[in-house]
Amino acid sequence: MINGKSIYLRALEPNDILFLYALENDINLWEYSHTQTPYSNYILQNYLENSHQDIYQAKQLRLVIAQKSTPKPLGFIDLFDFDPKNHRAGLGIAILNTEDKNKGYGTETVALMLQYCKDFLQLHQLFVNISAENEVSKRLFSSFGFQKIGLKKEWNFYKGKYSDEEMYQKIL
C-alpha cells in the first residue's frame, strides 16, 4: 500500500469487482480508455484473478485510489506499456464519480505514483496520452512538469467524430 495524506493506493481486491464493473462500463470514460464494448462480470473476475502478476510479467500495474477516511474506492491509476529496459511507462488515471472530482485526489495520486515510479521502479520517464479537449488532465499533468511533446491529429474516433490526442512526457 502506498500512503498519502487523504488517499492511499492499493492492489486490486476481489471485492473491487462492482467498482471495476462500474468504471469499465461507464460509457463516458470509453473515449479515454479506447473501450468499445461492455465488460462482463466474468471477464472482469478473470482480470482480478490475474491481477497479482508482477509488473515485470504483465507490463502493467493497476492500483485502486481509496479514501483514507473510508475504504471507499475513488478510481484507478494505471501504469501501462511498462518498459524496464528503457525505464519508462505510460500513466493513466480515472476518478469514477463526479462528486469525487476536483477535491485534490488526482493531484495527490499522481504525486504518490511519481514517487513510486522513481524510488521503487527506478523509471527514467513517464508519458501520458490526453485528449486535446481534456483541459483538466492537461493542467494536472503539466502541474507536475509533464511537457507536451506531440500531437496525434484525428487520432481517436468517438461518437461520430475524430479528435486529436496530445502526448506529454516527464523525465523523472
Our count of domains comes out at: 1
> Which fold name is given in CATH as the topology?
Aminopeptidase
CATH architecture, by name, is 3-Layer(aba) Sandwich
Q: Biggest sheet, in brief? A: 8 strands, mixed
Low-confidence stretches: none
Overall residue-averaged pLDDT value? 88
Cα-atom radius of gyration: 16 Å
N-to-C SSE series? EEHHHHEEEHEHEE
Q: Please state the structural category.
A: alpha+beta
Strand content is 35-45%
The coarse overall form would be globular
CATH fourth-tier homologous superfamily: Gcn5-related N-acetyltransferase (GNAT)
> Helical segment tally?
6
How far apart lie the N and C ends? Answer: 22 Å
Return the CATH class.
Answer: Alpha Beta
Share of helix, binned: 25-40%
What is the β-strand count? 8
Which strand order spans the largest sheet, edge to edge or round the barrel?
Answer: 1-2-3-4-5-6-8-7
